[in-house]
Fold MYND-type domain-containing protein.
Amino acid sequence: MNTQVSAHISFGHSISIYYKGSNEEEFDCRMRTRRGPPDLCIDDERYRFLKRPKVQVEFSRDFFNSLPDDLVLCVLCKLSSTAGCPPDFINILFTCKRLNILGLSSIVLSKACREMLAVKAKNWSESSHRFLKLCADTGNAEACYTLGMIQFYCLQNRGSGASLMAKAAIASHAPALYSLAVVQFNGSGGTKSDKDLRAGVALCARAAFVGHIDALRELGHCLQDGYGVKKNVAEGRRFLIQANARELASVLVTCPPSWLAGEGGCRLLSDFGCNVPSAEPHPANRFLSEWFSDRTGNVIGPGLRLCSQSICGKPETRRHEFRRCSVCGAVNYCSRACQALDWKLRHKVECTAVDNGALF
Ligand SMILES: [Zn+2]
Ligand SMILES: [Zn+2]
């Protein structure tokens, strides 16, 4: 397209720009400058005499309103699937009525990504609850899982939370499958007799199949211990090694080159027990950690504890629900996977056996 652009600049503080396209369509944009020269090339000599000129843009035609809805929806879908944080998307809803209506349409909300739904605990409100619910109603698995976790653990609405997590799990959402497995293993939200180990193993197996590393590790431990499944030490060991290998592979993608060649030589050549940098927690786990760190004691309940794995954030739903470290007894974990991860990253150097003799 042979587009001609010509600019006429008059220094009565107004600039007229004329675009001539191949279709001979012409529009006029009059601009009054407020601060600094506009992007167009302006005679520097003359600009010097303009002190803080005013900017005002007037379009003779509203091109946004002439865009078809399909095109605007396409842009909004792209934005909701790539937003880095909730305000990246939410702010555009306040721009105009049209963007507000189209932005809240189900096709856009169903595409919302994990980061866009990452509500912070300190910003939790009725409206953020409503927004997550709106996204979950479109079948968005991330929204179902995030809201499910918040309802189950923070708002103590166990039934609704579990059914939202189940909705995400049906859509093969790996963290939802794994979280439901932990609920089954612990009998969370119920009594000790509500534990369903076989259901936990089945959910874990499904989560591991869709690539969840913690689930794979959990499954390995279950097989080694015969917990909810027939004991098979060799197969369990194979799963544990596979989990370590996948963890290393995921780290290789994101770690800085210096990490690979750290002290003691190349880390890839070390045993599988090497300390890999901890993975970025899911926003739902981050929410839980923030929520309970702000309100410890009030919301968790007396005698209840948080999982000691720092990026997990899950609380007990009844006393003594979580397993304790059998050596020191000072830490407790929602799952074997959390225990194994925390052991590698932190607890290995802190754990000391309780000296019963010192008590007497
Ligand atoms: Zn945990
Ligand atoms: Zn310990």
